[in-house]
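Continuing the batch. This is chain 6 of the set; chains 1 through 5 are on the previous pages. Same settings as before, nothing changed between runs. Recording input and output for traceability.
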Amino acid sequence: MPSLISMPIALPATLLAALLLSAPAPVAAVYDPLGDLDRSLRGGGGLEQSIRQQFQGRRQGGLLAAADWAALAKFYQERDYKSLWIERNRPSALVAEVLQLIRETPLHGVDSALLVEFRDFQPSTPERTRLASYEVQFSEVLLAYARAMAAGRFPPKQYDADWLIKPRPFSVQGFLGQMLKGEKSLLQLLKELPPQHAAYQRLLKVYGYYRTIAERGGWSPLPAQMESLKPGQNSRWTPALRQRLRAEFSFHSLEPDDSSRYEPDLVAAVKAFQWRNGLGADGVVGPATRAALNVTVEERLRDLVASIERWRWLPRNLDDRFIMVNIPAFELTLYQADREFWKTRVIVGSKQRPSPSIESRISQLKVNPDWHVPESITLKDLLPKQLSNPRYLTQAGYQVFLRDRSQEIDPSEIDWAYYQTAALAASSSRCPAPTPSFSTTPRARPYSTATSAPSAPAASACRSPTSWQAYCLRRLSHKRGDDR
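Output for chain 6:
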């Protein structure tokens, strides 16, 4: 046993004699203090102890919430704090590949200052502590990125009170356990976490496009004193308008940059901008169009960030055929095999009473259904219009019927002002008042989804000074923008 005898470590003679005389060769080969010391310095058993110390006394990491940090600590504990990322006293090659993937991903949810290579990480600390600290921080970076891609960076309800879609679950131990199974590589698992839908991929490209514009300095706002500009006119502000549009879009102009003529190609570019921003595409640069043109590139990027985040909140298990309603665009799109199959305009809630974000399964399709307008829309939208214009319901294409639809009623025969007063009085006294039920029949649309609302409370539920007759309104045609 030469290795034991030649050690430069003083051992008591009795202990040394016991080792030499009584220990079998295999045991003596394992009991190698010098080798154990060397392995400890090279990151063997000592690395596990250092990783354990990284979790001791900490209830939350720098990147992970308390629940995720606790799950990560439990995961390492169940593995006896064995390293995931350190090989031969250095981070594995996979670490650099993951860091590169995160760097290339927009809005990855990780502070870029933390995406450092090991050589740039706390170089003044002892090697073993440095390795353990890097091990844990990389695990945090990985899991923060994975959660952001899988379920979003922020809780939906914290930023959107009308978001009623169930959050997508993400499990720290589940993700790491799937990685250890080895059925898929870590990079493949990470690439599958974000939404795979083509619309999400296009949104990322648009975000990158505006990031490039921002890096070039964005665009300058139009002068506040600029007057309205109509196609064919000459204006000293036309060059500024041309420059503003060129900073955001590429378009060909037949006129020189300093020309004051509002020429057809520039008009076409303005119309395209108006259409993109939900404005009337008439080519007239009025107050609304100027306000939209003066939105900065930073504000545009913030809007895109919000849209990307909402996509990450959505479920991933969308069917081969599904319908998506783009509330800000007033559009309903039927997707089939990840492509747009059919699109139509829809009516959505107002800013004061926005449409909620929901997920639901369509069980039936009704063609041209009657729509019973909810009580809130009756009182807050239609009634004020009828009071200001006694012919509004007729002009808007509504017919008034008894609730059983046995008889049509002339809207002019109804005391709408008294109706509003009684309804508000009943509301303030917490006593339900009977309300009309409005229904629509949109002839222009071959298909539409069915929506329903509960009927108004019965008048007999409280004592009212007058008896009420419930009405039903049917709309014969739809005029764009009436109910938005």
